[in-house]
Amino acid sequence: MKKLLSILMIGLYSVYLISGLQLLFNAHNLSQSNQIVSWKNSVICMFFAHLINGSLVHGSFFFIYFLIATIFCFSIEEISLNTGLPFGSYHFTENFGFKITNDLPLFVLVLWHSLIYPSIIASNLILFGKSYYYSMKSPNFAYPIFLTAIILTSFDLVSEPIAVNFGYKVN
Predict the structure, then answer these.
(1) pTM of the model
(2) What are phi and psi of 59, to 5 degrees?
(3) Is the preceding peptide bond at 105 cis, omega within 30 degrees of 0?
(4) DSSP secondary structure string, 47-68?
(5) At what angle do helices 32-58 and 2-26 cross, to 10 degrees?
(6) What are 155-164's contacts with CB under 8 Å, separation 24+?
(7) Quick count: other Cβ atoms within 10 Å of Cβ 76?
(8) 91: helix, coil or strand?
(9) Contact at 8 Å (CB) between 160 and 124?
(10) pLDDT averaged over every residue in the chain
């Protein structure tokens, strides 16, 4: 079963890579609707690849993380959409698809997970040379939190213009 999941994960990452390369090198030849489909598909593939990878590498701990991250992302987006804090005043358009509340599309939570998980892995690889690090007893446990936030913010700086350009978000 693990081998089958690993093959599926590699396939999903491959689709993500191909979609990203298509946007990067061929965006001028694609209609905006095809660019949107390509971008959304790549994010969805990344999301499912992360679910598979997380469950294979971290087991049940990953699902606890996933639940906590989903609740946090949902809460912070809802607060920001209704109050303007901490992200400022903005709203999502109907282009993002199904909304789980009046203001928040489900795809936003998928996008958050597609950015958070690789940020965590990257920060741990940079700091500790491995993709996971759980020791809360270590005096260095806060470093991955701060580096993850920096990496996540840089990912977000790239994805925000895409969302605005495709008409998903209005600032």
Answers:
(1) 0.74
(2) 65, -140
(3) no
(4) HHHHHHHHHHHHTHHHHHHHHH
(5) 150
(6) 155/115, 155/118, 155/119, 156/115, 159/111, 159/115, 162/39
(7) 14
(8) strand
(9) no
(10) 78
